[in-house]
Every structure is written in C-alpha cells, then in structure tokens.
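ingest -> fold -> write
write: protein_1
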Amino acid sequence: MWRDNIWGVLVAADSIGITLMIIAVFAGSTLWVGMRAWALMQERQSLDAWKLAANAYAPSTLPDNGATAIHSYFSALLDKSRRRDYDNAQLTEVLVERLHGPSESAWWVNGIQIKLGLLGKVIGFSILAIEISQIQNFDASQS
C-alpha cells in the first residue's frame, strides 16, 4: 500500500480524516490484542509450571512467579486447604474475572470500529449529495 501510494490516495480522498482515525484505532487495538495474548501466554506457562509441580508432588518446586493470576489462585487454594477451608467458589470467580475481564474491552473497540465505519459512510454520502446538487448540467458522461 505504501509503495503504490494507496495511503496517499486514501488521505487525499478523505476530507474529514475518519479513515486515519479508523486506522489508528485498528493499530492500537491490534497492539492491545498482542499484549493480551502475551499476558495469557504467561498465565498458561504459570499453569503448566503448577501442573508439573503437582504431578511430581514436590511442594518445594512450586513456581514462585507471583505476577500471574494463576499463581495467586493456586497459592490461595493451598493456603485455604491448610486452614481446612474448602469453599473455593469465590477464589474461582476472582480468577475468572482476572483472566476474562480485560478482554471485555475488545468488544467495545470492535463496536467503535463499526460505528466509525458507518459514520464515514454517512458523511461520504452527504458529501456526494452536496456535490451532485451543485452540478449545473447533468450529462451521462459525467457519471
């Protein structure tokens, strides 16, 4: 697109700048999705480490990466089991919210993208209607 000057054509044809706004939101959301994928990969690695330690039944080899939700969840489960408190529903809800909650904003960004596209279409049709109304003599060759 850069080599064939498609970006230049898009910018020149867009008098209100909505195309650049849509591209900026798309680029930002793409970066955000990459960061969320990386964070979920970290959570998965933490889960794998906990599973390995549990299978080996070696409490001394339990992973100590407290930055992940999985580590916090399993650490809290161990603490509760030591106190003989086996009601884990609240811990599970917290884990689900920590893993799923940040991904909810992706739907909001998706909605913004759709609304910006529709707004651009309405504005484009309005500009087209204004230009058509300013035509003095209509000739089929003009269309």
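write: protein_2
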Amino acid sequence: MFDLIDECGEDLTSCGYETVKLNRFDICASKLFVDTAQKAKRLGFDKGHYFIMNAPLLSSFMEEHREILLAEVGYRLEFLLKENKIKKKSRILFVGIGNPQIVADSFGVRAVNKISFFPYKKNNRIFKLMPNIFANTGLNAYDVIRLVVEAFDISAVFLFDSLATTNISRLGTSLQFNDAGLTPGSAMNNFGMPINKTTLNVPCITFGVPMMISSRSLGVKQGKGAKTEIVLTEKDAEEKVEFLSSLVAQVIDSWLE
C-alpha cells in the first residue's frame, strides 16, 4: 500500500495525471482526478481529486518557499472546497492524525494546533480533535471522529497526517492533498478504518506530508526472523515538520478569515 498516489507504480499519464513546473526552486504541481471505480481499483486509491506539490530544494531555501507554496496550495484548495460545497460557515472538524511524541509522525497534530481557534466566540463553528494513535489510547481514530461528527452535526472534516514515501528524496519535500480521505497506518500495513465521505457521510479534505520511509524501500536487509520493518526519517525532520505544519495552517487560516 502506498500513501503518495504518484508512487503507486502505475502509468498515471494514461489516467490523466498532469504536472506543471513553476518558475522557482524547481517546484512542481501535479494533479490526478480518480473519477471512476475502474481507475480507483487500478491505482489502489479511493476516488477523489488529488494534488501533489513537490519542492525538492525546500531544505536549502525553506522560508523562500513560503509565499509561493501558500499561493499554489491555497489556489488548489479553493477548487476542492467548491467541488465539495464546503463554506466558511460550515461546521468544520479539523483532525490531527498521528503520534505527537514522535517528530516524524507529528505533522498532523502540529498543523491542527496551529490553526487559529476561538472556542469562546459566539456561534463558533470550528472544532479540533487530536485522537492520537491506537497504541496510546486503545481507540481507533475513525471511531472517535465518527462520534464527534454525529454529536456535533459536523458538515466537513479536514484531516492532517504524516505519510510514508518510497523515495528518500521526497522526505519533507512533498505535500499531497485531496478530497478522498485517508486510512491511518496504511503505508505501514497497519490498517485502520478508512476515514472518508463514504464512511463519515460528510466531505473529507486531507493534507499529508511524507516524513517516513521503510528500510525495505531503501533496500536494507533485515535479519532472519524480523517481524517488523524499521521506519526511518531524516535528520532535519523537526525543521521540516514545523515549517510544513505552519504553512498548511496558514493556508487554512487565510481561507477562514
């Protein structure tokens, strides 16, 4: 199972995959609309609109990327919002998936924490949730989210999570966002319940950043009898997670203003 749709190993061009190269820092913006059940089955991804931003020079010119990525991500987010009829006045639940105690898995929690929030404001329609991981709580993220959606009559769910990649150069340099939802732990074959419009009955917008890679993807051989894979990240993971979570939160805040 793959987290990034452009790493699924299929010929995406024949499925309508398009890439535009921006003018600075070799940033590329790609999109793929999985609009049929046949495409979804072939690619192994749920139906939806997928956008991917790749910024290979992010490590060297981090702050210089901010304004460019804010504009490009914001523009594409507007498309997803219109497609799913999500408005500023909707009752929105922002969910940070992942383990906040592990830097590489904390993107989701950090992003949600950075989104502006005024719970005491009259007629507040924004809600935040950080369900943590099953190993720490004994609760599946889907079950917790579903209960909140039903109890508070939520109109849309925004999900934020760290992803896995099969390409070490993409650690902390890509951002994938879509309206297809996500399945927590799927890239590490630790499948949770899918969290999407089908399972929750409300639109789900997902933001993910690849921060982890398995030893298998790097060609590292493990000893005989090893039952689990080694999961690795990069040495500047803290800086990347902090920057990208801040960037995504800023995009959301700009829309909510």
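write: annotation protein_2
Strands lie at 18-21, 28-34, 48-54, 92-96, 126-129, 156-165, 174-178, 204-214, 231-232.
The domain at 5-256 is CATH 3.40.50.1450 (Rossmann fold).
pipeline exit 0
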